[in-house]
Write a structure and sequence with these properties.
The protein has 45 residues and is mainly α. The protein has one helix and no strands. The termini are far apart.
Length: 45
């Protein structure tokens, strides 16, 4: 295999790992906007 072939194979492996991380691991974390937010209700009396 030529160095260019190895570079293409390495790039493909990196792309596969990134796509798997993005779809399976990154979606499990809550977004920054949802962490620690509380809903306040004011009652008129």
């Amino acid at each position: 295999m030529t160095p260019l072939d190895l570079l293409v194979v390495a790039g493909a492996i990196v792309a596969i790992v990134w796509v798997n991380w993005y779809f399976f691991l990154a979606g499990r974390r809550p977004s920054k906007g949802q962490v620690g937010q509380e809903v306040r209700r004011e009652e008129n009396s």
